Amino acid sequence: MAQSVRDKLAVVTGASSGVGRATARLLAHEGAHVVLVARPSDRLTALGEELGAAAHMLPADLTVNADIDAMVRQAEQQFGRIDVLFANAGIYLSGPVIEGDPDEWDRLLQINVHSVFRAIRRALPGMLARRSGDIIVTSSISGHQAIHWEPIYSASKHAIQAFVHGVRRQIMAANVRIGAVAPGMILNELWGITDPAEVERLVAERSGLRSEDVAEAVLFMLTRPANVCVRDLVMLPSDQDL
Prior knowledge:
This protein is of the alpha/beta class and 242 residues long.
């Protein structure tokens, strides 16, 4: 029997835009209490106001290790537990390695990899003690195959895949689930697509996913029966040739 997220406490990183914002909205609509984690911004404030009592804003900079630790500590202190951690924050880089800026690579790895590892490490003790919890990480099709025009981004998502697969085997006996959702092309800010008309055109052409499509996949993973762990959910636009 499918589970419900109603009354669960879900921490969503990267909540101010894209997949994070869409997932926070959907979880709140389904009755969850959502902790919105992102850098302080008008968009984060607007989302908190939109979701009302279901949402709790927690501004944080995930490039700062102390902010990651404080994010989990404050959520647990205020609400007593974290039922769901959606580790979603990320940035994107592409282009030839020979033309790349290693400082930008370091920032990408700090956000896409290190912050995810640290957030999961920090959230696990409470989940393991309660023998209950769900962790979902935003990966990418780039984590399943090395894409030549984005080798640094692909490397970060391959790291996510290896981590999720290894951690799952370490924690599965404690009834804590971990999985990765791995989308292809998403029509949102990460890819520089913000015009609603452009989004609808590309959706009609079957060449892109809405952020909401990915949010629905996350909800599907969270609501599977307790005996089911969706380790990897790979989703592509039906016209994406990868």
